[in-house]
C-alpha cells in the first residue's frame, strides 16, 4: 500500500495497532488509531440489538491434522493476551423473508461447543454491523456463529449445520413486487461470475464485507517524516473510506427489501 519506505512504515504502524491495541484501549474506540466496520448478513437474529462480545479464541486441529478451525476458548483463567478477541455489534435491519426455521444440535467433537439453536427461530435474516477491536483470525465469523448463534450467510466452515437446513429464497417470487429489472449476468473470463452467490442461489458466498475504514491521514506525517512517532498517529485528522457492497451482497440486500 505504501509507495515509499516511510509511507509503508507508517501504514504498518496503523494496521499493527488493530491487533495489539485492544490490550491497551479495550473497547474505547475514540482512542483507536484504526477503526473498521464490517457488514454481515447472518441467519437468525441476535437476542439484543447491540452489544460487545468479549470471547477469547483458540485454534484446534481437526481431521487428523489435515485442517484447523478457530473456536471460543472458555477457560478464562488461562487466557493469553494473544487469544483475546473483542467485537462490537449492532443490528442494521432484520428481515423475516423465508420464515427460516433452523435448529442446531449440540456437538462436542474436537472440544468445540456449538449453540443448541439459533438465537431466534423463525427470525429470517439480519444485517449486522461488526466492529472488531482486535484482529484475530476468523474473529467475526466465530463470534457470530458461536457467541451470537447467528452464522454468517455463506460461512460453511462455522455455520454448516444452519446452511444444511436453509432454504434458498426463490428470487422470481420475491421480485414480483419489485421494480428491479433483471439483467443477464455478466460472465467474466475463466467462468468467474462476481454477481453470483446471493441468497437467491444454491451456492452462497460469504456475506461479510469491510464497509467502512477510519484511519489517520498519513499524508500529514509525510510532510515532516523526521518528527514522526507512533504516538502521533492518534493526533492526526482521520480519513473515512466507505466501500459499496459487492454485487452479490447488494443483490441479497435488494431481495430482502423487496
Automatic annotation (TrEMBL):
Swiss-Prot/TrEMBL GO biological process terms: enzyme-directed rRNA pseudouridine synthesis
Family statement: Belongs to the pseudouridine synthase RluA family.
Pfam families to which the protein is assigned, alphabetical: PseudoU_synth_2
MF terms (GO), sorted A to Z: pseudouridine synthase activity; RNA binding
Annotated Pseudouridine synthase RsuA/RluA-like domain residues: 30-145
Record PANTHER family: 21S RRNA PSEUDOURIDINE(2819) SYNTHASE, MITOCHONDRIAL RNA PSEUDOURIDINE SYNTHASE
Name of protein: Pseudouridine synthase RsuA/RluA-like domain-containing protein
Subcellular location: Mitochondrion
Keywords: Isomerase, Mitochondrion
Keyword Zinc-finger found: no
Superkingdom of this protein's organism: Eukaryota
One GO location term (cellular component): mitochondrion
Amino acid at each position: 500500500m505504501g509507495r515509499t519506505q516511510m509511507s509503508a512504515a507508517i501504514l504498518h504502524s496503523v494496521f499493527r495497532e488493530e491487533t495489539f491495541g485492544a490490550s491497551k484501549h479495550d473497547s474505547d474506540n475514540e482512542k483507536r488509531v484504526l477503526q473498521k466496520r464490517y457488514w454481515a448478513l447472518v441467519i437468525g437474529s441476535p437476542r439484543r440489538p447491540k452489544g460487545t462480545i468479549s470471547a477469547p479464541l483458540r485454534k484446534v486441529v481437526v481431521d487428523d491434522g489435515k485442517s484447523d478451525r478457530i473456536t471460543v476458548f472458555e477457560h478464562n483463567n488461562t487466557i493469553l493476551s494473544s487469544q483475546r478477541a473483542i467485537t462490537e455489534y449492532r443490528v442494521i435491519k432484520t428481515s423475516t423473508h423465508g420464515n427460516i426455521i433452523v435448529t442446531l444440535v449440540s456437538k462436542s467433537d474436537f472440544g468445540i461447543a456449538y449453540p443448541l439453536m439459533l438465537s431466534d427461530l423463525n427470525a429470517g435474516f439480519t444485517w449486522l454491523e461488526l466492529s472488531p477491536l482486535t484482529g484475530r483470525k476468523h474473529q467475526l465469523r466465530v463470534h457470530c456463529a458461536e457467541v451470537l448463534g447467528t452464522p454468517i450467510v455463506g460461512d460453511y466452515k462455522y455455520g454448516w449445520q444452519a446452511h444444511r437446513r436453509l432454504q434458498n429464497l426463490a428470487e422470481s417470487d420475491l421480485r414480483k413486487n419489485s421494480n428491479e429489472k433483471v439483467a443477464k449476468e455478466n460472465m467474466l473470463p475463466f467462468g468467474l461470475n462476481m454477481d453470483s452467490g446471493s441468497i437467491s442461489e444454491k451456492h452462497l458466498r460469504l456475506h461479510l464485507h469491510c464497509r467502512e475504514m477510519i484511519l489517520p491521514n498519513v499524508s500529514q506525517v509525510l510532510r515532516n517524516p523526521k518528527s514522526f512517532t507512533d504516538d502521533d498517529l492518534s493526533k492526526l485528522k482521520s480519513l473515512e473510506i466507505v466501500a459499496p457492497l459487492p454485487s452479490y451482497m447488494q443483490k441479497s440486500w435488494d431481495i430482502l427489501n423487496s
